[in-house]
TrEMBL record:
PANTHER family: UNCHARACTERIZED PROTEIN YECE, UPF0759 PROTEIN YECE. InterPro entries: DUF72, UPF0759_sf. It comes from the Bacteria. It comes from Tamilnaduibacter salinus. This is DUF72 domain-containing protein.
Length: 283
């Protein structure tokens, strides 16, 4: 069944999710009963084997989508230079998943500057059919509303390629009083949220505040934006992150409740009914 949007997390398993996801033959099978997509962060660090890809394909329904990241060696070490051979090898390995691939997450580091844009255009223009990308940039110039950002946006529009909307504002309002929060604030970029209307499915990566309820006010504008996208038939991808991604399913559940209030036809997440009530009988 085609859904009007796709909701996911940055990974498909965490020990904290054991009491939240329904039963299944594997962590991925359990996850894919609840969510419609997942960020493939694993491929940023290491390329799976073809056999692993075949196993993953067998564990998800036909309408599930993987949004894998290109390997770090391609995006960060080589800054998209001399990428033809490693890209071909990567795509060959993922071939068993072709029918459940969403756009690849082409996450570019702050070291990827406006001077490197010709590499991006070459990369996108030579990516074979039917593969496509969504692009995340982190260099400050791409958020300055000047010539660099205009050139980036123009090139993405010409190629009907979405620009990732990464929203870390909630995260950076948190007091950095734990190692987990400090680590998240160190690793995640703090950049403005710039939306780019383009003929491609939007991709939102929301990085939450560690206090679940605090996220309500930060999520409220996204509820309206996603509602508009759904009405326009754009079918966005929405990913929920937390400083501790063991809390990502709880954040996704909160998000789905908020969106359900706005769009009653969209049911909240189908999480396991018997969840532990920690501290219910504590002194």
């Amino acid at each position: 069944m085609t859904t009007p949007y796709s909701l996911g997390c940055p990974q498909w398993q965490d020990a904290k999710w054991n009491d939240l996801l329904p039963p299944g033959s594997s962590a991925l099978a359990r996850y894919s009963q609840v969510f419609q997509c997942v960020e493939g962060n694993t491929t940023f660090y290491a390329t799976p084997t073809r056999e692993q890809c075949e196993q993953w394909r067998a564990q998800v329904p036909d309408d599930f989508r993987f949004l894998f990241k290109f390997p770090r060696a391609i995006t960060h070490d080589q800054l998209l230079g001399h990428a033809n051979e490693p890209v071909r090898a990567f795509l060959d390995t993922l071939e068993p998943l072709n029918d459940v691939l969403g756009p690849f997450l082409l996450q570019l580091p702050a070291a990827f500057t406006p001077e490197h844009l010709t590499r991006l255009w070459r990369f996108l223009d030579t990516l074979p059919e039917p593969y496509h990308c969504t692009v995340e940039v982190r260099h400050p110039a791409f958020f300055g509303k000047g010539d660099a950002e205009k050139a980036l946006n123009r090139g993405l529009r010409e190629r009907r390629t979405a620009r990732v909307c990464l929203d870390s504002r909630a995260l950076f309002t948190a007091t950095p009083d734990t190692d987990i929060i400090r680590d998240a604030q160190r690793k995640k970029p703090q950049r403005p949220v710039h939306l780019l209307p383009v003929d491609a499915r939007p991709v939102v990566r929301y990085i939450g505040h560690p206090d679940l309820e605090t996220n309500r006010r930060f999520l409220a504008p996204w509820v309206e934006r996603v509602h508009s996208w759904i009405e326009e038939g754009q079918r966005p991808f929405v990913f929920m992150h937390m400083p501790d991604n063991g809390d990502a399913v709880s954040l996704a559940s909160l998000w789905s409740e908020l969106l359900h209030e706005r769009i009653p036809a969209l049911a909240p997440l189908n999480l396991a009914q018997h969840q532990p009530q920690i501290g219910l009988f504590s002194d």
